[in-house]
Amino acid sequence: MILHRVLVMPLVILLITFVAFCLLHLAPSDPTIVALRVHDIELTPEVIALTRTELGLDKPFLYRYWLWLWRILHLDFGHSFITHQPVLDELAHALPTTLYLAFGALLLIIIVAVGLSCLSMFVLHSWGDKLMRGVLFFFTAMPNYWLALLLIWSFAVQLKWFPVSGLQQTSGLILPAITLALGYIGTYFRLMQGTMIQQLKQPYAQYIKARGLSYKRLIFRHILPNSLHNLFTGMGMSIPKLLAGAVVIENIFALNGIGRLCIQAIFSRDYPVIQGYILLMALLFLSFNFLNDVLQQWLDPRLRGAK
């Protein structure tokens, strides 16, 4: 299975590069006109023709794609229309902030979802269990931009516990991470709780009960470890979603991450940056899914021989 993924990944990446390159030509605006208007240059036929030549837009489509792909293979993503800086430098500067935010949210999701699912096993089908699920599903259904504004108004404006925006302080990452995590905690709580309930009905759990071991030891020593498989599977799919879902959060909290960079590039029609963002997110998505497959096979020996 792992070898199959390794062989297929280059073909998938090649397809993604072709789609990303095609987006430049499917856009309603001419990249040449966009590049000139950004710098308030007068649009004369001579200037437009010269700019098209400089950007390589006067060459055949497939030839341009090959040249662009060749530069990508040499880590040359082109230059931004706005800042004239290399796109790779722009992405490298913004990526750490997004990674801090995504992995901070991931840590909160794991701690809260696992903790609450274990707690729920001691209050199953009671009012406490129903209240817990209701509150978590309420936050799951709430739009994250509205939740972000509520958290800013409550904890930053009124209580002044955290900064309103930016990362001038380390605590500036707490509210964005909580906002991003709350949309996923309810989902993974339900996933963990359902898996633990299924494990509780398995013969080995009944045997442990018959031996007289305490319910607490059964949950934490046996049920919880056997239920983490589904959690890790879901987390492997959610890490790229957290990275992509940080776009709204970064703009609300004014974090200079890759999501905010993408939004700015879209509004200014900075096509090289948009293409670089698409490629980077696709590579991150494929990489994390591949690592998730490796982790699953390491945790579950039954999958090592699966085709």
Mean pLDDT: 80
> Based on helices, strands and strand pairing, what is the structural class?
mainly alpha
Rg: 24 Å
- Total discrete domains: 2
Number of separate strands: 0
CATH topology of the largest domain: MetI-like fold
What is the helix content?
over 70%
The share of residues in extended strands comes to under 5%
Largest sheet: none
Q: What is the architecture of the largest domain at the second tier of CATH? A: Orthogonal Bundle
Morphology: elongated
Report on this structure:
The protein is mainly α and 307 residues long. The chain folds into two domains: 2-73, no CATH class; 99-267, MetI-like (MetI-like fold, Orthogonal Bundle), CATH 1.10.3720.10. The chain contains twelve helices and no strands. The chain has helices at 2-26, 31-38, 45-55, 61-73, 87-120, 127-141, 144-158, 174-200, 203-210, 215-252, 258-267, 271-299. Helix 2 packs across helix 3 (45-55), helix 7 (144-158) packs across helix 8 (174-200) and helix 10 (215-252) runs parallel beside helix 11. The longest helix has 38 residues, at 215-252. The radius of gyration is 24 Å and the shape is elongated. The N and C termini lie close together (6 Å). The model has no long low-confidence stretch (mean pLDDT 80).
